From TrEMBL, chain A:
InterPro entries: Metalloenz_LuxS/M16 (IPR011249), MPP/UQCRC_Complex (IPR050361), Pept_M16_N (IPR011765). Transmembrane segments: none annotated. Pfam families: Peptidase_M16 (PF00675). GO terms for biological process: proteolysis. PANTHER family: METALLOPROTEASE, ZINC-DEPENDENT PROTEASE. This is Protease. The keyword Nucleotide-binding does not apply. It comes from Lactobacillus hamsteri DSM 5661 = JCM 6256. SUPFAM superfamilies: LuxS/MPP-like metallohydrolase.
Amino acid sequence: MISPKIIKRQYDSGFEADILLRKQFNQRFFGIIVDFGSSDPQEIAGSAHFLEHKLFAKKDGDISHKFEELGADVNAFTSFNETMFYCSGIEHNQKLIELLFRIVGEPYFTKENVAKEAPIIQQELAMYQDDPNWAINNTIMKEMFATSNLGLDVAGTKKSIDAVTAEKLLQVYKENYLPTKMHFIACGDFSDYQVKTIFSLVNKLQKKYFSTNKKAKFDHTEVIGQMKDVALSSQSNSNLFGVGIYLKNFKKVLSSLDLAQTLLEIMLESKLSVISPWFERMKKENLLSNPLQISVNYTRQGSFVTIFGVSEQSRRVIDAIKEELKELVPNRERNFSEDFFELQKKEWLAQNVRSLNNLSYLAVETAEESLDNEDSFANLRKLQTMSFDQYLEHCETLMKDSQICSARLKGKDEK
Amino acid sequence: MLKVNTLVKQNTKFTTATLGCFLRMPLTSHNLAYASLIAKSQMNATIYFRTIREQQRELSKLYDLQFEVTPQLFGKQIIISYVANFLEPTEVLDPEYTYEKIVDILEKLIHCPDVFNSDLLELTKKQLLSDYNELMQQPSNYAIERFFKLWYKHQPDYAENFMGPIEEIKEASIASAQKFVKAMEKMPSSVICIARDSKQMEKLIKDNFKQVGVLEEFMTNDFSIPAEKLDIDQVDNYGNLQAQLMMGYGYREKLDYKKQICGMVLSQYLAGDQSSKLFTKIREELGAAYDVEANNYANNCLFLINAGLDPDQVDEAKAIIKNEVKQVAIGKIDLDLLKKAKKSLLNTQLIGQDQENWQLAQMLRDQLFPDYQDFDREKAIKYVTAKQLEKFAQNLFFNESYVLK
């Protein structure tokens, strides 16, 4: 397997740019990622997400229309520690890059346009809140991280959305949209000449829009919730449940947080996935029939695992998960775990090879990795040479002193 | 000479190869229920790999081979699609990992469902019931289900939109599953593949996929379900934070490919992106929605517009939708927006070529629809005129409004 070719530049302001080459692809993807998201410090929860929406407003109207005139798509997303603006098209590279820098570099917030956006974001939040998944996820995030920004929805709350003003948005923008916190990415089939022109254009635009030499600040304060087991009353007939694990001791493995995340995901899959002995028992006892969704996340404000599943007897399944995680690899399961670890090495290799076929995914992942100084292809090589005992040792360290909470919807007999 | 339904294209771009085996059968609620059951069961286990654990382990050993089985609806037809995506062997250079081995295992997974194992059947039923229950808790899914149940209230065989009648799935037995699988063996099928060594793959497919169905006529003209005049206006109240609005326009006749493209352009013009008519009016001006969608279901003779809305603004949104469709029908078309919509669709076609699944779907269409292979989609999009759009909208009749609050 060959790693994709990435050409990197860093400018005097601290702004960075990457061009990732994928030959023969028609799509051209451009993005700017900002090292600031919903769980980072902001006076009003949801400001990062509101900012993401409102940066599309310009004096001459909604800038997305200009992308569409060029036949391109434009969008953005906000995650816990990042906000990303991106577009994708076939031609007009230069114009697309110029427009993308205008989105991020030219705030235009007015009382009117902020007031107009609030009900749209309220509808976005309502769309999620009608889904039982939201209630479960929201509860375990609050149990893990209380009402800190990490414990709340990325969009904030109904109340916080209404409290956002143009002045407050501008303040958040000025504090966080700094050249040292930003990264440009281009991905596609570019000639050597195009690579040269893209870098030169990016240099010109970053100078134009991001001239401040204000230093970036990062906050790593963790606020921990009550870590309770919560049963929610619900009108729905859903049997969803969720488990949250707060990882007190999550840290880099072989200089990489991504690798630590991968190792823990492998460990949890080996314990709880459909091919684990545990799942076999759950199936026999009629407690589970569908696989669990497991995910490990790290943020500046805390690292955690979420496990989601569906069961008519969710309380018993939650207890069984807690019991199973007490001992990572009991002697009786060592052979299975070792075999599973070797298979997972193949799976992660496959995942990296597959990622090369999806330009948008590849570009977003690469941009995120660049912000965090990560390299998925280097991590893959580290994983391939890791022994089972080393893996086990790392996982035990990462899981040390972790705490578990849960949320479930009350069963029919409890309602 | 017998015609074998296979189509293999050379992969010059991707690090993975894709193989799809597609099986066609008429849409009835019974067929859909059993197709869902067998599809799910085959994703769990098969005769050669009798437990989830064994089957998953085998797929992991093949560098996480992705194997998906899903029934897809094409108007009056169900296509059971078996799609495998796997690393090109030249990416890993593992002597144990070859096209021969992959095709051999895929053939076993596809052709050998385990319909003798009552534990597997019961597990699969439980999974489907649980999936269905959770799907229906999401208002947008529930609204789609209700919309189609009303739209096809006089044609119950077409009314199921997710997995067929849940009661029929609950009552399925080993004997009824075996009967269905026996019938599946004779259904027309086609095997399609995109792989680097297309010649070797073509040979392997011909050697391994020898079921009767690949010799049957896979192509058909019998997809379209003309819309029946209904005039439905229904509101269900469940106390949700957001209302789901579904507005269905029907047309009486089957559309040729050019008219289908017109429908696609109209959906893009009305709700394709942020400058589209309904997005601008309902989201930007009214502030009532986060998203608005429009889709032309050509095989169902249905043009559907839907949105998640502030419950207090449903009537205003309905009026806007009706008015915008009417504006197109009377020829008041924003030509700049039409140009943008066409440009966007053309780019979507080109970007689609960067995705294996999109290419596979196009190859399936070539096999399934008569003369589709000769139809130039890009050219058709380019040449859609305002007049054609106007005519398309004139043929639409407002048929159903369903609101879930």
